[in-house]
Amino acid sequence: MQRLIVWSFVFLTLVASALAVQGVKTSGGRKIGGINSANSVASNNTGLCYMRVPYSHWVALNGTNTTSRPVSPLPRYPSPQGNQPWVTLVDCCEGFVRNGTSDNCIAHCDRGCEGGRCTGPNICSCEPGWAAENGVCKPVCSRPCRPHAYCFSPEQCICQLGYISDGNDQCIPVCPGGCTNGDCIAPRTCRCKPGYTLTDLNQCVPTCEGGCPHGECTAPGVCTCYTGYVNPPGETEACIAHCPNGCLNGECTSPGVCTCRPGMTRDTSGRCVAECEGGCPNGYCVGHNRCECNSGFVLNPATGKCSGTCQYPCLNGECTGANVCTCKQGYVLDTSDPTRSRCIASCPGGCPNGVCSGPNFCICNPGYIKDRSVKGRQRCVPRH
C-alpha cells in the first residue's frame, strides 16, 4: 500500500512538471523544454521532444520501463527545494515512433501508407499512380472499372469479393456448388427456373405437387417411384403400391399386398374372393353370402344355395343338375326309364326267386322263403 502511494505521488509530480515546462519546437520538428532556450539540450533528430524533471523523479520513472532516457551530462539547475540535479528526458513527439534500428524518431501513419511514404504524423506522400484520399493513398485507374470491380493497383481493376471474371472483361457473381436448374444472380444467391424451388442449401430442386410420397421428384411434376410402387395410370406426380397379380375385389395397400373389401376374403393364392358361409355348391360366391348358380341350377331363396332343375321329379333321388337325378344311397338309376328320373332299390347280390323292394332287401315270390343259413344274403329258396 505504501509503495502504491509513492508511485502515485511520482506520477502526479511528473505530470505537474511536464505541464510547467514551456516547450518550443525546433526547426527539425523537435520540442525543447526548459526555463529558457539557453538551458535546453539541442538535437538534430526530427520528432524528438525534451522534458526536464528532478533526478529523483527520473530514477523512479526509470523503474517503470519507460522508453525515455536522460541526456548526459546532468546539469544542475535551481529548484524550489534547493540545489538538486535535474534530468532532461528525451522521447519521440506525438505522431512519431522509434525507428527499430536506430534512435531516430520517424513519422507514424495510423492506417499505414500503402502506395506512398509516411512523411509526417498521419500524412502520406503518394507515389506516382496513387492519389491521396482521406489521409491514405489509393490507386488511380484512368478508366472506370467495370461493374462489381474496383481499382486494385494503378491502372489495374479486379473483381470484388464474391465475383469472378468471365474472361470477357466482366465480373459475374459466384455461387459455390454452381446453380444447377437456376441462375446465379448475386454472390451465393440462386434464382431457380420455373418448376424448381430454392432449398436452404441454396440449391434448385424440382417441384412435385403432393411431395411425391413413395418416390423422388426427379423433374418438375415427375415422380420416380421407389421399388414396389408405380405411377397411377395417366399420372406422373404420385406413386401407389403395385401388386403384380392385380387386386380384384380389394385394394393394393403395399407392394404385393391386397387388402380385401368388406365381404371378401383372401384365398390361398392371395386373391380376394367373395365370402359365403358354407360355400356355394353348384355355383360361385359373388358377394358377402351371395351365390350365383351354375348353368342348370337355380337359387333356393330359403337356403341361399343353388339347386338343380329337372323336368321330372327325381324318385328316390335328388336333382343335382339340369335334368340330372342323383340317387340316394342304396338306389340306382333305372336305366329302363326314358326320363332318367327314377331311382330303384339296389340289391348287389340280386334277388333270385324274388323282387328287390328296398336297398339290399328282397321279397320272395310265392312258394319261396328267405334263406337264413347265410347271414347277409338275400336269397329265396323253395318252401318245403
Automatic annotation (TrEMBL):
Residues 1-20 form the signal peptide. It comes from the Eukaryota. Keywords: Signal. The keyword RNA-binding does not apply. It holds the Pfam family C_tripleX. Residues 108-138, 140-172, 174-205, 207-240, 242-273, 275-307, 309-344, 346-381 form the EGF-like domain. PANTHER family: FI01909P-RELATED. This is Latent-transforming growth factor beta-binding protein 2. It comes from Neodiprion lecontei (Redheaded pine sawfly). The gene is LOC107227281.
